[in-house]
């Protein structure tokens, strides 16, 4: 192994080590932290805009997602199975 190869191997090992340490920190930071949002009435509005940069490329749109978990679950039932 050449000197340059050894440096590359050490740098790759350091990158993997830092990534693993960061992942462990993220998991252990606050394991009881609640994720998501509280259920309720109304809708969440999600902005799904994409701009490719440059002149004129991209798409934009918004999605409304119900805050009520039961109403959200009903969205996944096929129309021919609904009563």
TrEMBL record:
It comes from the Bacteria. This is Uncharacterized protein.
